[in-house]
Specification:
With 289 residues, this protein is an alpha/beta fold. The protein is built from nine helices and twelve strands. The longest helix is centred in the first third of the chain and has 29 residues, at 59-87.
């Protein structure tokens, strides 16, 4: 049985006349009559009672009519889903993201994406940049928001979508909080709270301190910016964090601009080969300002 046969069946049932149904289908009547006869032979049941003036459904035909209509509608839905999926208008998008992407980049991009692609289901998962790259390579994620720079990957490509600078986070009760800007060598003797060793920001922070002429005295490490800010708030030390963390800053922590700026970048990461259309669409929105 073919969809074409069901379409013919529904057309004859609604027109109650082979000639009128043939006109609606833009075909001649004899092939339509033959097609219905073959369908009846295949099913082993008559679908229509034929008279000189009118064609009416048999009980078997009447019982099948709504199901035939539903099947044709589902076929149309199937075609639409395939078309939408190929265009990236429908489907499931798995997004990996570092925490700092949630401060400004994600709140900017997600509303745009949902407005433009409402039928795409978003699945967001926090992870380190290295984990995101590994999962893009394995196919467990579709697109990632990562901290740059990353170790080169032959399977993943990245590009910068957001630029920021490191700031020094200090408790508001600290004597340093009164300063507008600060040179890193002014805090050479302060205890430091660093990002975890798997974070790109761990190495960037160490290098910034070394360029300022000292090796930081690290007393704590934490994986998330929010946890680092909480430790600063508790008075356990100072920390270098992205300036956009201001969006989630506790009231008793202050960010100080560095006299010598330390740039940091967030990038979008995609598989080099066969990136899904929704992932490409998401990355393009990340590029837009």
């Amino acid at each position: 049985m073919e969809l074409r046969q069901l379409r013919y069946f529904v057309a004859v049932a609604e027109a109650r006349n082979f000639r009128r149904a043939a006109v609606q289908l833009n075909m001649s009547q004899p092939p339509l009559t033959v097609a219905i006869q073959r369908l009846e032979q295949e099913l082993g049941e008559r679908l229509f009672d034929r008279s000189a003036r009118e064609v009416t459904l048999t009980p078997a035909g009447a019982a099948a009519l709504e199901l035939a209509r539903s099947t044709l509608a589902q076929a149309q839905n199937f075609r639409a889903a395939v078309r939408d999926g190929a265009a990236g208008d429908r489907g499931r998008l798995r997004i990996g993201l570092v925490e700092s992407a949630t401060f400004a980049l994600l709140p900017r991009v997600i509303p745009l994406f949902r407005a433009r692609y409402p039928l795409v289901e978003l699945v967001l998962e926090g992870a380190t940049s290295q984990d995101i790259v590994r999962r893009l390579e394995s196919g467990d994620m579709d697109v990632g928001l990562v901290r740059l720079p990353l170790l080169a990957s032959r399977a993943v490509e990245t590009r910068t979508v957001e630029q920021d600078e490191l700031h020094l986070a200090v408790p508001t009760a600290s004597r340093l909080a009164k300063l507008g800007t600060i040179a890193l060598d002014q805090v050479a003797d302060e205890p430091f709270i660093l990002h975890g060793r798997v974070s790109v920001l761990h190495l960037i922070s160490l290098m910034a301190c070394q360029e300022a002429g000292f090796t930081p005295r690290v007393t704590q490490e934490a994986a998330q910016v929010s946890a680092i800010l909480s430790l600063v708030r508790s008075g356990l030390g100072v920390a270098l964090v992205p300036g956009r963390a201001r969006a989630a800053l506790p009231s008793d922590v202050r960010l100080l601009a560095l006299a010598r700026p330390v740039p940091v970048e967030t990038g979008v990461a995609l598989p080099r080969i066969r990136a899904s259309r929704p992932a490409v669409n998401f990355a393009e929105l990340c590029d837009s300002e």
